[in-house]
């Protein structure tokens, strides 16, 4: 067969013919041209071929390669990014509840204003209500109402809003607001409402993105949530002791939050470029397209079916955070030292160490434990989750609000209280990590993202439910006794 005849070989596999390229009729030149080696690899990684000429419909060669091969997560880069976003999603909430003294003493206290501001006595309840109502609403809204654009695009705008509102918070800390306390109060609460609207979408979407990846990446978000609390508590303590000025302490405290949010914003741009993340993102999109091609493309996702399949784990997620927030920080932070011999007698340090630091460090340790072992299985996880309801009566019988209670104090040993507080924190971190990791696996892989978003909404709903019932405890201990 002549070289010219070989040029007309037909490839039956893809239906493409190879057209001859004439070189002035010179047979020698054609022989030299045809003897050049044909480069098949690494053409997948090169850009020397126009993508329009590739035989993959709506798919580049690099994307086709990513579908076939799973790249490694080099240096745990994607894991660290989700860890950072786990920190950033709970940062606004932790920053505001840990800064309670800044609001009720420095900004709205009698020493600053010369009179008792009417909202100081229930400032924490108002703050938590303004924080969690929009968070709950927008978490569920984010599931059922389709928002155009990639999931990561929602994260970008959510972080931008968080950053802008923290800048406003820093400016408010810089200025003297003693002549307009009501204005400061309402601006702060409006900022909290808007901030948590954005944060509701942010947190829910992060869980939806992590659900596309192996379960440990959902665990990374949970770990980041718990690291956030520890980080915030340490920053709060450090800001109080590094500077004697309450104003400067507040400024540096909120600037730290702004710095973390900026890191989260930067990692948003890095994540879609990472080959490991793109592998799972491409496969998730492919599964969604396959499902749409099999069904009516206009059909909404089967939310009822997904919720029903995931409901055992959604129950676990909800109850874990319901119990935790029913006692922390409402009861936890108002428990006073019981013994004169306990090694911490300072009220500020007692609250910061035994309440905030103990809980946040314990929750962080608990969220790390699933890396080493996983028990119980998803079938029996509800048993230890339900048993955690016993923490509520235990805390109520500690030295909680000692000056206004008629319910007897049964737990008078500070070390017993501290030990049980540590178990509550560790179990919260460990069981929540398991429940959040189990939830996406309860449904088919193409529904995992929605199941992960349901889990994020159940988490926020549990937090909100726990906060609501915590309003009952001051009345309970002051009106119930025997």
Automatic annotation (TrEMBL):
What topology does it adopt in the membrane?
Multi-pass membrane protein
Keywords, comma-separated and alphabetical:
Membrane, Transmembrane, Transmembrane helix, Transport
Picking any one GO molecular function of the record gives:
nucleoside transmembrane transporter activity
- Source domain of life is Eukaryota
Q: Which GO terms describe its cellular component?
A: plasma membrane
Q: What is its main location?
A: membrane
| Annotated compartments | Membrane
Pfam families in the record, alphabetically?
Nucleoside_tran
- Presence of keyword Membrane: yes
Residues that span the membrane, as ranges: 75-93, 123-143, 155-175, 181-202, 249-271, 314-331, 351-373, 380-397, 417-438, 450-476
- Tell me which family the UniProt entry assigns to this protein: Belongs to the SLC29A/ENT transporter (TC 2.A.57) family.
Tell me what this protein is called: Equilibrative nucleoside transporter 1
Organism equals Ceutorhynchus assimilis
């Amino acid at each position: 067969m002549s070289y010219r005849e070989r040029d007309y070989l037909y490839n039956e596999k893809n239906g493409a013919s190879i057209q001859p390229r004439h070189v002035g009729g010179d047979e020698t030149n054609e022989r030299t041209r045809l003897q050049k080696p044909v480069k098949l690899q690494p053409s997948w990684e090169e850009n020397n071929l126009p993508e329009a000429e590739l035989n993959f419909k709506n798919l580049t060669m690099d994307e086709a390669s990513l579908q076939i091969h799973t790249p490694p997560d080099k240096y745990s880069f994607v894991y660290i990014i989700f860890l950072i976003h786990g920190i950033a999603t709970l940062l606004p909430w932790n920053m505001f509840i840990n800064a309670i003294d800044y609001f009720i003493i420095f900004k709205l206290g009698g020493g600053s204003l010369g009179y008792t501001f009417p909202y100081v006595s229930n400032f924490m309840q108002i703050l938590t209500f303004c924080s969690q109502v929009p968070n709950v609403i927008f978490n569920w809204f984010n599931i059922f109402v389709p928002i155009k654009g990639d999931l990561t695009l929602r994260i970008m705008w959510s972080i931008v809003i968080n950053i802008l509102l923290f800048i406003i918070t820093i400016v408010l800390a810089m200025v003297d607001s003693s002549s307009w306390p009501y204005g400061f109060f309402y601006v702060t609460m409006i900022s909290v409402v808007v901030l948590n609207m954005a944060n509701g979408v942010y947190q829910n979407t992060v869980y939806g993105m992590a659900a596309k990846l192996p379960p440990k990446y959902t665990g990374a978000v949970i770990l980041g949530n718990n690291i956030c609390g520890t980080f915030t508590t340490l920053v709060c303590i450090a800001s109080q002791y590094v500077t004697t000025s309450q104003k400067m302490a507040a400024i540096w405290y909120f600037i730290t939050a702004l710095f973390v949010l900026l890191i989260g914003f930067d990692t948003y741009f890095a994540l879609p470029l990472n080959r490991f993340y793109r592998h799972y993102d491409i496969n998730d999109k492919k599964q969604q397209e396959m499902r749409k091609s099999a069904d009516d493309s206009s059909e909404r996702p089967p939310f009822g079916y997904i919720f029903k399949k995931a409901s055992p784990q959604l129950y676990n997620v909800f109850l874990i955070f319901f119990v935790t927030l029913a006692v922390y920080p409402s009861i936890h932070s108002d428990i006073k030292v019981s013994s004169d011999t306990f090694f911490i007698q300072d009220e500020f340090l007692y609250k910061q160490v035994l309440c905030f630091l103990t809980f946040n460090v314990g929750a962080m340790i608990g969220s790390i434990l699933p890396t080493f072992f996983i028990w119980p299985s998803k079938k029996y996880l509800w048993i230890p989750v339900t048993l955690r309801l016993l923490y509520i009566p235990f805390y109520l019988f500690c030295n909680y609000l000692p000056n206004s209670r008629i319910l007897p104090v049964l737990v008078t040993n500070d070390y017993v209280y501290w030990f049980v507080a540590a178990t509550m924190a560790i179990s919260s971190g460990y069981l929540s990590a398991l429940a959040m990791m189990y939830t996406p696996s309860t449904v088919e892989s193409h529904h995992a993202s929605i199941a992960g978003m349901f889990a994020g909404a159940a988490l926020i709903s549990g937090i909100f439910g726990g906060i609501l019932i915590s309003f009952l405890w001051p009345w309970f201990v002051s009106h119930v006794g025997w």
